[in-house]
């Protein structure tokens, strides 16, 4: 019931948060499913990918987006690109607890993977942007990320640089003042829509019926994921695909205890900052305590204090450390957190804002290891070769 309430509330307020916080109002694109992207190969286990009608995928656009994603000139000190924090060799994360931007300034949040972000119904831990196009404009002007004062320095480069001039002319038929941040954002989003990966051991086990794809330990872990662990209630698996996220927001007891005492003051200060026209993207990434407000910062709902978006679990073994604040170092620490009923350390007090779905699980040490082994079976073949740290049972 509460979940249903939250879902409706989330949907109802979402439209107005966009109007308030996104500077550019794109025409709302109607997503069209691209059926050729579902099915086997690297995409085994993924749903069809929706692509906005006003931003179709083309190889040239994806290549342009790739170049923009890696261009360090779009930062105040020339050292930061999207790839600094979303590095392909680290599962498109930075493997840091919280990201470091220009001049080593640190933010408040852990960089989520960009792999499969194309499938999410909202972007960022608190879902404050609705799609990749709008998400991609923010990091350039965030004071602790690329740190630019505005988007003009980017436009100056892409309108002058011969390679960019040629590419934007080819892809969008634009140049000079007609070339805007919307084109830059579209190209980056197209590149991100090409970073999709299924085909893990789990997918071969579950979707193609290869019973040898998972070890017996992992199979027992899968049963715990579905049953006693109740993980699947938020990290969902559908009949013909799995994204391991319900695209909703839950408080699972991370970071909230540090601000619990301060909530009356914090929520009041946040309301006031918003009324004064404060930019939520900047506030939550520069102020540690405001960051902990989670979804509340977007929808003003006290029910959503400390609630964050359920992240995908695909490629989770590559993307340690974990949670919105990077506070849990290994998958074993994560499973322990759930086993404790949403608290770390085990003797801490559970928050009053905790999701109803989180309660002690009574898993044995053997079962905890089984669950971790299952999570390690979610790495896509195409990224497994990185040999990145498993984040598994070893500290
Ligand atoms: C300084 C590090 C840093 C840089 C640079 C950076 N990001 Fe991020 N990225 C983050 C962090 C941290 C978050 C989570 C922030 C939040 O949720 O409030 C994030 C979130 C995202 C998400 C949301 C994923 C999800 O699951 O919700 C996407 C997509 C993304 N970044 C793409 C990009 C793109 C594109 C660029 C370049 C334009 C970029 N990032 C630059 C650190 C960075
Ligand atoms: C009530 C919904 C819910 C349930 C049940 C749940 N999760 Fe989560 N999970 C979340 C949310 C929300 C987050 C992010 C929380 C945050 O950062 O504050 C998360 C984060 C994670 C992460 C870290 C992901 C990352 O990228 O940092 C892992 C791993 C994980 N969950 C595994 C599990 C396992 C294993 C179970 C079952 C034992 C489980 N979850 C049960 C909602 C849930």
UniProtKB/TrEMBL annotation:
Task: Identify the SUPFAM superfamilies for this entry.
Answer: Cytochrome c
Gene3D superfamilies noted in UniProt: Cytochrome c-like domain
Q: Which UniProt keywords apply?
A: Heme, Iron, Metal-binding, Oxidoreductase, Periplasm, Signal
Q: Which InterPro entries match?
A: Cyt_c-like_dom, Cyt_c-like_dom_sf, Cytochrome_c_Peroxidase/MauG, Di-haem_cyt_c_peroxidsae, MauG/Cytc_peroxidase
Please tell me where this protein is predominantly located.
periplasm
Can you name this protein?
Answer: C-type cytochrome
Q: Which residues form the Cytochrome c domain?
A: 60-165, 216-379
Enumerate the subcellular locations listed in this protein's record, separating them with semicolons. Answer: Periplasm
**What organism does the UniProt record list as the source?**
Candidatus Methylobacter oryzae
Q: Which PANTHER family match?
A: CYTOCHROME C PEROXIDASE-RELATED
Pfam families, per this entry? CCP_MauG
């Amino acid at each position: 019931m509460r979940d249903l309430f939250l879902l409706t509330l989330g949907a109802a307020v979402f439209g107005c948060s966009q109007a308030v916080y996104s500077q550019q109002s794109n025409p709302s694109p109607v997503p069209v499913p691209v059926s050729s992207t579902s099915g086997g190969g690297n995409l085994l286990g993924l749903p069809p990918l929706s692509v906005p009608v006003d931003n179709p995928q083309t190889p040239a656009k994806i290549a342009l987006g790739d170049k923009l994603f890696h261009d360090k000139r779009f930062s105040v000190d020339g050292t930061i690109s999207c790839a600094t924090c979303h590095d392909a060799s680290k599962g498109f994360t930075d493997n840091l607890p919280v990201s470091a931007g220009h001049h080593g300034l640190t933010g408040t949040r852990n960089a989520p993977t960009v792999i499969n972000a194309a499938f999410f119904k909202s972007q960022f831990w608190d879902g404050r942007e609705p799609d990749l196009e709008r998400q991609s404009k923010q990091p350039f002007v965030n004071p602790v990320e690329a740190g630019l004062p505005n988007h003009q320095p980017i436009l100056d480069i892409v309108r002058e640089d011969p390679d960019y001039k040629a590419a934007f002319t080819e892809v969008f038929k634009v140049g000079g003042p007609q070339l805007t941040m919307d084109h830059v954002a579209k190209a980056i989003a197209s590149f991100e829509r090409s970073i999709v990966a299924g085909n893990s051991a789990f997918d071969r086990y579950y979707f193609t019926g290869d019973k040898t794809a998972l070890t017996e330990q992992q199979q027992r872990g899968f049963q715990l994921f579905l049953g006693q662990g109740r993980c699947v209630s938020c990290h969902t698996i559908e009949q013909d695909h799995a994204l391991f996220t319900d695209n909703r927001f839950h408080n699972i007891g991370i970071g909230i205890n540090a601000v619990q005492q301060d909530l009356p003051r914090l929520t009041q200060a946040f309301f006031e900052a918003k009324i004064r026209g404060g930019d939520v993207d900047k506030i939550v990434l520069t102020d540690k305590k405001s960051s902990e407000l989670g979804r509340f910062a977007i929808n003003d709902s006290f029910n959503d204090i400390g609630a964050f978006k359920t992240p995908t679990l695909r490629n989770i073994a590559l993307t340690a450390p974990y949670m919105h604040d990077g506070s849990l170092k290994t998958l074993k620490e994560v499973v322990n957190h759930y086993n404790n009923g949403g608290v770390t350390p085990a003797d801490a007090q559970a928050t009053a804002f905790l999701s109803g779905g989180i309660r002690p699980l009574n898993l044995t040490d053997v079962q905890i290891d089984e669950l971790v082994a299952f999570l390690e079976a979610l790495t896509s073949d195409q990224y497994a070769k990185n040999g990145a740290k498993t984040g598994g049972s070893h500290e």
